[in-house]
Amino acid sequence: MGGPAHRILTAMSVAALIRRVSFAAVALELTISAPCLAKRQVVLELYTSQGCSVCPPADALIERLSERPDILALSLPVTYWDMLGWKDTLASETNTRRQKAYAATMGRGGVYTPQIIVDGITDVVGGRESQVEAAIAARRADLHELPITLSMSPSALHISIGALPEKNADDATVWLFHVLNHVTVRIGAGENRGRNLDYRNVVRDVRAVALWKGQPLSLDIPRADQSLTGYDSVAVLVQEAAYGRIIGARMIGASGGQPH
């Protein structure tokens, strides 16, 4: 299908569209830690929608990039294209609010799909692979490596965050993501009707759990506070202010092993 490489949503376009369309817990207290990488991963956040005809190439790109050890790739389906005839089965208002917060922080006039946010500070049209790769390379040349260790016990997720000795760090938000590693969806209506679309590392929930103030920080998140179903991994991002540069990132399987 022809057309632009991305779909933009602004306040005016929303109005126009509206006018047109009315663990299993184990007995052993065994803790398995996520191994530390030599260098932390660059974080990619893809804002996508099942109702967006130009999003599948970006979804496929994120699927490929998620296999790379230097990349932590996340898919965040948004809700604002549900009005086009298909309600996205994976989208959440939480994801939509996060994308809009990025737009406000970056001074953008609106949001669009597919959009990839690279390490919290750069946005790229999701289907433009060469531009995405260039943004990744630029971040690797200026990468802050805040030490993060994640481990799971039968009772809690344990988060240990270190310090950045090379600079006076700004306060940063600690974000907890619940992630579904892989899902295939049959699209029943809308612009992608009849297609089977694959999604990797789909964010099912995201919440702020702490404020990091530049000093080592330890957190225990009880499993009882993670009662959400439909996820098999958790990721932790440490992000300057709330929606600024990402300075630390780690993901672990919900059972304590490596994400699949």
Summarize the structure.
With 260 residues, this protein is an alpha+beta fold.
Question: Which helices and strands, and how do they pair?
Answer:
Layout: E1 7-9, H1 11-20, E2 32-33, E3 42-48, H2 56-65, E4 71-77, H3 93-106, E5 111-113, E6 115-118, E7 122-125, H4 129-140, E8 148-152, E9 156-161, E10 172-186, E11 196-212, E12 217-222, E13 233-240, E14 246-253
Parallel strand pairs: 3-4
Antiparallel strand pairs: 1-5, 2-8, 3-6, 6-7, 8-9, 9-12, 10-11, 10-13, 13-14
**Termini separation (Å)?**
33 Å
Order of helices and strands: EHEEHEHEEEHEEEEEEE
Content of β-strand: 35-45%
- Overall CATH class: Alpha Beta
Low-confidence stretches: 14-38
**Rough shape?**
globular
Main β-sheet, spatial strand arrangement: 2-8-9-12
Can you identify the CATH superfamily?
Glutaredoxin
Number of helices: 4
Which percent bin holds the helix content?
A: 10-25%
Instruction: Give the rounded overall mean pLDDT.
Output: 86
Number of E-state strands: 14
> Structural class given helices, strands, pairing?
alpha+beta
State the domain count.
1
Looking at the overall shape, the CATH architecture is 3-Layer(aba) Sandwich
CATH topology: Glutaredoxin
Rg over alpha carbons: 18 Å
Textual characterization of the structure:
By secondary structure, the chain is α+β, with helices and mostly antiparallel strands. It has one domain: Glutaredoxin, CATH 3.40.30. The chain has four helices and 14 strands. The protein has a four-stranded antiparallel β-sheet, with no helix packed on it. It has a four-stranded mixed β-sheet with strand order 4-3-6-7, with helices on both faces. α2 links the parallel β3 and β4. The longest helix is centred in the middle third of the chain and has 14 residues. About 10% of the residues have low confidence.
